[in-house]
Amino acid sequence: MLVYNGFLYSKHEVYENKIVWRCSDYKKFACKSRCHTTSEDESGEILKHTDHSHAPNVAKSEAKGLVNEIKKSAENGQFSTR
Where is this region: Disordered (predicted)? Predict the structure, then answer.
């Protein structure tokens, strides 16, 4: 998943040097927002994004970011995975 400007995106399509992400609330709100990034092999830089048809869910995106930080800490061996 990708978190950008308080919105969550799911990986939609992967090309040779670009990844297209779709708003994770595309079904719930019929949101057509997309975000394009360079591939993971490159910098992962945001190339462009489109507007959403709904407000951001800041709490949900912060929670997702925190879970990812905890997972990375566990992978580095600082804490157990429990």
Answer: 38-57, 62-82
